[in-house]
Specification:
- This protein is α/β, with parallel strands linked by helices.
- The strands form two sheets. Strands 1-2-3-5-4-6-7-8-11-10-9 form an eleven-stranded mixed β-sheet, with helices on both faces. Strands 12-13 form a two-stranded parallel sheet.
- α1 packs antiparallel against α2 and α1 packs parallel to α3.
- The N and C termini lie far apart (62 Å).
Length: 353
């Protein structure tokens, strides 16, 4: 049976069984697009479909269908949820790692970029697989087209830069709902994002420093870098210092120095905002990711030696998640691996008393 099915069909069936429907669909589309003629296609289709059906029955039929509210995988569960308050409703996905059995674990909130979705962002960053190893819950709030036509978080809107108002209240509400429903260590709650999501993560770190123990900003902007659409484009093109931080939260920054969408100066501004008013020592080293880009890693520590800021400038990289997976959009598979480094930074930074 397997010898007469095209290899793409076999791989698509395996991906379907694992719950990776997007990847399976892409493989099937590639196979259909390669068929030589309409006549050959019509003659071959019934036999191929019959063989695929038999294969799927033999290998998949004995598994229970997933419950409609979530997707199961061999690794863990990816739940589909929603949160509402006075400022609106936002969907979100929640990944529960296989090692979670009710013990207190960290929570990482991941904010996607423009045009992306929670599923897309999860696929591109690979954070769910990383969370399995570290046993962390991972939440992916989703922006809606009703709130922004490009599904961008409205980081640039003055109304969405305030505590207990607008989108910050919704993202914080999702975070608190998960903390209420699951065993989350309140000292180990983190937030990260890409592009508009990175800018929104910066806003969350500045407006909820009591909720998030550390922040990750990839290709994003500082909190308060803009107050409306006009100043948002100016900040993206030229950079903006942002507003003074109300209270300092440890931050890790990733930015490609060939980013033409969000000027790399904005990565410097995120780090400067986190350092403002602090007396920090700076340590810089150059490196080269195996098979990837050169990078400059700058670490800023306080007087006791705790790392307050870690900034990665990825030389030659554009506007994409560094070390990401091509299954998601806005990713660059070349390292350094932003997911690995952010997770490591987060776990090194529980909230200090």
């Amino acid at each position: 049976m397997n010898k007469i099915l095209p290899p793409e069909m076999l791989e698509a069936a395996r991906l379907t069984k694992a719950g990776q429907l997007k990847e399976a669909t892409a493989l099937l589309q590639q196979l259909l697009n390669r068929r030589p003629t309409p006549a050959a296609e019509s003659a071959e289709a019934p036999g191929v479909l019959s063989r695929v059906g038999d294969w799927l029955k033999r290998h998949i039929h004995d598994e229970p269908a997933p419950a409609p509210e979530h997707t199961r995988s061999e690794a863990g569960q990816f739940l589909t949820k929603s949160f509402s308050n006075h400022f609106g409703t936002r969907p979100y996905k929640l990944y529960i790692p296989r090692g979670y059995h009710g013990q207190k674990v960290p929570l990482i909130v991941m904010l996607h970029g423009c045009t992306q979705s929670p599923d897309d962002f999860a696929a591109g960053t690979g954070m769910n697989a990383a969370a399995d190893g570290a046993v962390c819950l991972v939440a992916y709030p989703g922006q809606t087209r009703k709130a922004n036509m490009q599904k961008c978080w409205n980081w640039f809107s003055a109304a969405d830069q305030q505590r207990d108002a607008g989108e910050p209240s919704l993202i914080a509400g999702i975070t608190r709902e998960i903390m209420h429903d699951y065993a989350v260590d309140p000292r180990r709650v983190y937030i990260a994002g890409l592009s508009a999501g990175g800018a929104a993560a910066s806003v969350m770190g500045n407006t909820y420093p009591d909720l998030y123990a550390a922040v990750g900003v990839h290709s994003g902007l500082a909190c308060g870098a803009a107050r409306d659409m006009k100043t948002a484009f100016a900040a993206m093109q030229h950079g903006s210092a942002g507003a003074p931080a109300a209270r300092h939260v440890p931050v890790i920054v990733f930015h490609g120095d060939r980013d033409t969408t969000v000027n790399p100066r904005n990565g410097d501004a995120v780090a400067a905002q986190a350092a403002r008013g602090e007396s920090l020592r700076t340590h810089t080293r150059e490196g080269h990711a195996p098979g990837g880009y050169r990078y400059t890693r700058t670490v800023m520590t306080d007087a006791p030696g705790h790392t307050a800021i870690e900034q990665w400038t990825v030389h030659g990289a554009g506007h994409a998640w560094s070390g990401g997976h091509p299954a998601g959009s806005f990713t660059d598979p070349k390292g350094p691996d932003a997911t690995k480094e952010m997770l490591r930074f987060f776990l090194e930074h529980p909230r200090r008393a």
